[in-house]
Amino acid sequence: MKLICIGRNYTEHIKELENEKPTDPVIFLKPDTAILLKKQPFFIPDFSDDVHHEVEVLVKINRVGKYIGRKFAHKYYKEISLGMDLTARDLQSQLKAKGLPWEKAKAFDGSAVIGSWLSVDKIKDVNDINFSLKKNEEIVQSGNTSLMLWKIDELIEYVSKYFTLKIGDVIFTGTPAGVGKIFANDKLKGYIEDIEMFSITVK
Ligand code: ZN
User: Fold this and answer.
1) Of 116, 122, 168, 178, most Cβ neighbours within 10 A?
2) Residues with CB under 5 A from ligand 1 (ion)
């Protein structure tokens, strides 16, 4: 399976990193080895002094598809979750400055946190989901999927032009504003509405 990540999908986050607003979604991949194993702490890797949390709504693909039209995209997922695209921001900035790919900064072991899965039947509208991240009981990021530049179904249409989507693939739909550095002993908890979707300790 693969993890397909969307960058720059919320205007306020584009501003905070002083990035340009893209004309197309920014896409990158993480391998399955990036998934932080269940109930494991996240260890800050020795190659970064500035790992950031990026909380994101996740979509799990449940049918194989290619060139999926946005009208049919809702048939390709039945569960959503919340996760984190943990990012070695210092390394990413160096790579970006040189025009190099981001993988070392974005796809390293443990960089993909995947929370528990929620059936879309339990959600009124996938384009109106409130979500948030608490760091040590303080809310540091919050968003609503209505603020996405490209909504979930549009992302599926776009991504599936380039990559065949397979059962079990997960799309990370981008982070809202409020990304920031994590430190050893931080506790990170993600919520969709009031439901706790993940709880991670940083080491
Ligand atoms: Zn991200």
Assistant:
1) 178
2) 54, 85, 175
